[in-house]
Amino acid sequence: MRKVTITSATPSNDVLKRKLLLFAVLVALLPCTEHSGYAQSLSQALSAQAADALPLTSFYDTPVPLPLGNPGELISSEQFDGYQTPPGVTAVRILYHSRSAAGEDVASSGVVLIPYGHPPVGGWPVIAWAHGTSGIARICGPSLMKDVYYSWEDLFEFPMLGYAVVATDYTGLGTNFPHQYLAMDAQAQDVINSVAAARAAQPQLGARWVAVGHSQGGMAVLRVAELESQIKDANYLGSVALAPAADLLANAEYIAHNNPVGDIGLFPYLAFSIESVFPEFRFTEMLSADAAARIGLVENQYCLIPTLIAFGNPQTLAPAWDSDKYVQEFFAENRPYLQSALAPIFVGQGLADVDVLPSITQAAVGQMCKEGDKVEYKTYSGLDHDGLVFGSFADQISWIGSRFAGAAAESNCP
Fold first, then answer.
1. Residues 6+ positions from 179 with CB-CB distance below 8 Å
2. Furthest-apart CA pair in the chain: how many Å?
């Protein structure tokens, strides 16, 4: 394989094209991560999960109650060499203070991927990476997976192109707190706070950063854009949202009626999250009695693919799953497109996506444009939920490079 020499954090177009050709050949040989590559049985899925798993060590534990700390304050860090990262890339785990959906002090974990070589003047430019659905159990944090969950699917490429990656696990994946799945304020704050913590752990990181997220992470980085309009961090340069979970109710209703690729298996995650936000909520308002009785499996043992296999059938849902007041309130509160954003946004959507519908993303983008956001929206014919991450990579890199270069962002809002 031809070696690639990283000479700049913002490579020229010709250099970038050559690098992307190399990556295209490489990633074409690799499987997608989040939804595709289903095992044929639950036992095979659990075996594959175990083969990729790393031990949940005491590094991830925090005292109960957690001693108070400021958002983004580093609790601890450790260099870790057990990942399948490209040669020369350094990995450092971080543990840091963040905030729950209700603003409570919580601990989150993650991993920082640092490029080979010496940082440019001002430090490595930073990608704050927000992953798609991995599960709700502690063992489902990407920093507890050998491939950091996304591997070459829009993750390992970044440090090879001269970007440091700060990849949060989200609170509760790794750390001993409930994971508030798709509670946008919780995940957005995990992303924002991870950047400050990573800089404290690794001073060679630069001040400027872009947030990039897929699916659940796409929702998170859209909310980052909104929260930054209040925080006003001049070093935040924008968000890349790929197939974002922007309208939970509309997408959940579609999944409940059509169950694409077993996505009904995501409802136990939603039920767990709603209960963590509204303790009065009961699982049986959303789930069947059988599914509610087995929810301990997803709380403690199953990550994404085993969950979709074990729970991805219509019998998982209660008959009136969407009528409960707490379900309705949770869906109403988590729409990351109703407030203005501080910086530009790139939204990518595969037109063959059956997990996050293109029509739902388009409606959300329309509302973001009405809010006055500067949005570049691109669709990709023939690409599904995971294929989008590969297919849009060149556009992502071009857009991100323009933000760090200080170029004016384009918008194709009407």
1. 135, 136, 137, 170, 171, 172, 173, 272, 273, 276
2. 59
pLDDT digits (tens, 9 = 90+) for 309-327: 999 999 999 999 999 999 9
| pLDDT, position 414 | 80
Helix spans in 53-183 (H): 157-160
Tell me which residue has tokens 């050559």: 18
Whether the Cβ atoms of residue 23 and residue 157 lie closer than 8 Å to each other: yes
**What pLDDT is stored for residue 333 in this prediction?**
96
Q: Is residue 4 part of a domain?
A: no
Domain that holds residue 274: 250-331
Q: Write out the DSSP string of 170-191.
A: -TTSSSSS---TT-HHHHHHHH
**The model scores a pTM over 0.70:** yes
| 413 domain-assigned | no
Mean pLDDT of 357-363: 97
Higher pLDDT, 409 or 21: 409
Six token digits for residue 333: 């509160």
Residues 6+ apart with CB under 8 A from 279: none
Question: How far apart (Å, rounded) are the C-alpha atoms in residues 381 and 269?
Answer: 30
Backbone φ, ψ for residue 75 (5° rounding)? -95, -50
341 shares a domain with 263: no
How far is 136 from 179, CA to CA, in rounded Å?
A: 6
List own/partner pairs for 18-22 with CB under 8 A and 24 or more apart: 19/160, 19/161, 20/393, 20/394, 20/397
Q: How far is CA 170 from CA 112, 143, 266, 388, 412, in A?
A: 14, 10, 17, 23, 32
Joined together, the tokens standing for residue 321 give: 């799953």
Separation of alpha carbons 348 and 247, rounded Å: 15
Domain-located, residue 7 = no
